[in-house]
Design a protein that fits this description.
By secondary structure, the protein is mainly alpha-helical. Helix content is 71%, strand content 0%.
């Protein structure tokens, strides 16, 4: 239970960073600043996705849910 709490706190921190970087991208920036923030945003999103998959391994992939494709049935007998 404690590990889930820690992972949820880390997910919140990543989410807050993503939101902060998105707000920064809406401001006037130099090309160098914009490139740095875009790179950091990408890294935060990747870290958030990896941690989410680790914390909630039973979730369906978003592509299947968005497309309305049902999960594949297991062929175990």
């Amino acid at each position: 239970m404690m590990m889930i709490d820690e992972n949820l706190a880390r997910l919140r921190a990543h989410r807050n960073n993503v939101l902060r970087y998105r707000r920064l991208l809406a401001t006037q920036l130099t090309d160098l600043e914009r490139a740095y923030i875009e790179r950091r945003l990408s890294e935060e999103k990747g870290a958030m996705a990896a941690l989410s998959n680790e914390t909630f391994p039973f979730a369906l992939p978003q592509e299947r849910l968005a497309a309305g494709t049902p999960p594949q049935e297991s062929s175990h007998v």
